[in-house]
Amino acid sequence: MDKEKQQQQFSLHENSKNEGLEFFRVSHGEKLLTTNQAVGVSNTDDSLKAGVRGPTLMEDFHFREKLTHFDHERIPERVVHARGFGVHGYFQAYESMNEFTKAKFLQDPTVKTPVFVRFSTVVGSRGSADTVRDVRGFATKFYTEDGNYDLVANNIPVFFIQDAIKFPDVVHAIKPEPHNEIPQASAAHDTFWDFVVNTPETAHMIMWLLSDRAIPRSFRMMEGFGVNTFRFINDQGKARFVKFHWKPLLGIHSLVWDEAQKLAGKDPDYHRRDLWEAINMGEYPEYELGVQMLEEEEEFSFDFDILDPTKIWPEEIIPVRRIGKMTLNGNVDNFFAETEQVAFHPGHVVPGIDFSNDPLLQGRLFSYLDTQLIRLGGPNFHEIPINRPVAPIHNNQRDGYHRMTIDRGSVSYSPNTLQGNAPLPTPENGYVHYTEKVEGQKIRQRSDSFMDHYKQATLFWNSMSNAEKQHIIEAFHFEVGSVMDKGIKQRVVDMFNNVDGQLAIQIAAGVGATPPSAPGGTGVTTSSPALSQENTVMNPRTRKVAILLENGFNYQDISQVMEALKANGLQAEIVSKNLGILTGIEGQQLEVGKNYLTTASIKYDAVYIPGGQQSIKTLMLQGDALHFINEAFKHAKTIGATNEGVDLLLNSAIQGVAMAGTDTQDQLITEMGVVTIRNVTDINTFSQEFINLISQHRHWIRQNKKQMIPA
């Protein structure tokens, strides 16, 4: 296939939708109503009856079809990853990876490969909230020239268990308890922590789960990890071990726990709304695809087993090579048809990508397909438009539930002579499994190389900043503090004493358990900078700023700041007591975006208060406005004020922060993420400092001065 034809067949339309789905996309506006058999419908408000007050007749095929379809509109919910949100996009390689893999979508930088990505939480039901503390799914379907490839990833690089046979156990333990179906979308209960203390291999994953990684700021600001070990295979048949990474270009950022809990109540759709709005505004999320690669002869060169899914490959030892970029630029047209019916499977690979003996991966290769068969009604789920490859399908599989293909001809078997043995196997271009030599006795036993459960958990703890460590401790206090069984609480303390002695002491202090009698730890003193979010990219684009305003505002202040925010890709929204139009000192008018009933500080990354004496006097009388500021300060967000706006900050509960006084002239004062300036008309210097502070995400120095944080 020449490059021009390949580009035409496998690239995206401008709207980013997989072109193979266009036949199935239908707009119903200004169309005549029909049945599913395309028969016109004369009346859809009244069933066919024997007389106007008589019984409904069975021959009313429209009534029966309409009700039957409604009765079956819901398909079984996913056991895990039930709450998800999907978007379309494309992937482009940076350079040919032919030296390492023959996967065609990783060869030509000019080719755009369509993708569909589904982000999700793991534990909660479809009706749960987006911002719960949980692992996030990050599954990508590549519609490649060689067929579909699914990279089924999480936002945490390790997992709870080492062998897939324990997957039902960890899911049963973390799901709502069966006797009362409580709690929803939470690990803060007895059965989960009972499983943890009886399964020490969970230690590393628990450290990640209780870190800020489990409450991301948005899907656009979290990493993705393939978790399992795969193989790259090149044209010469040479294999290398590989792990996959998605690196967001906006950096890796998180919520704080109090904020995540409040968002779950005020806006349970926070993450999906954030992604939907970003794409609609043209702020397309971008992620670089990275790979860690190991030569086969290096398999046993480390103090961890590279096939152990509870272990990372430290990036300082095995660097991540960034090989391409994914851009997400198309929202779905129909949530059910696309997001809910999409089926991912780690066994959906293309030539050039193969498996390893990772025991968790080996089980996933069975489980995902088995799940799709029951969720999507049989073996033909690949014919649902969102799952259908853009490459043609030819095989002898026939019939079954929901078959959509109309197969012509009498031959449906191989080998055959009636059809020239077609469809023909293709040894040259077909998938060939890597010829790994395998031998050994049949045995139910784990490798000794999988038995170290604590060293990498210590490495993770050592790698955290002081603020991140404090968040982990507080997460233990909430999660384990919610456990009713005192024996389990004590066993958690004793278990994590194996990770770090001081960590165990601080856990015990918050959950009412006895500190360990002897100091613990693993002796690991090293750290990995890649594990801390403090070392991430600080890109302020798409951050949201709330501007608190009332009538009598200083238009010159607000216009300069809004112009600077827009120029740097930030979004500003005016928040006031009432919706409608506000009028400035000199008569300029601005429209309110949200009032205090329809929004809260937890939905913004920063707060700005412009000058205007009348506006500030009104705001000082509003408890909601003062609470908005106090809460933003508590959550370590950037706060800025100009001219009379500083007075509102001085009347809030913020304490111990230096601010511009009434006698200062053109003096910019910045302390602990609060920036103020007075008695100026040109506030460009303020604007740039305000944006610089927002780009730092949070100002954790406040966390170390709790006495000044408003309740």
Automatic annotation (TrEMBL):
Cofactor names: heme
Ranges where the Catalase core domain occurs: 34-422
Catalytic activity field: 2 H2O2 = O2 + 2 H2O
GO molecular function: catalase activity; heme binding; metal ion binding
Alphabetically ordered keywords of this record: Heme, Hydrogen peroxide, Iron, Metal-binding, Oxidoreductase, Peroxidase
An example Gene Ontology biological process: response to oxidative stress
Membrane spanning stretches: none
E.C. number(s) listed in UniProt: 1.11.1.6
Domain of life of the source: Bacteria
Task of the protein: Decomposes hydrogen peroxide into water and oxygen; serves to protect cells from the toxic effects of hydrogen peroxide.
Family statement drawn from the similarity comment of this UniProt entry: Belongs to the catalase family. HPII subfamily.
Protein name, per record: Catalase
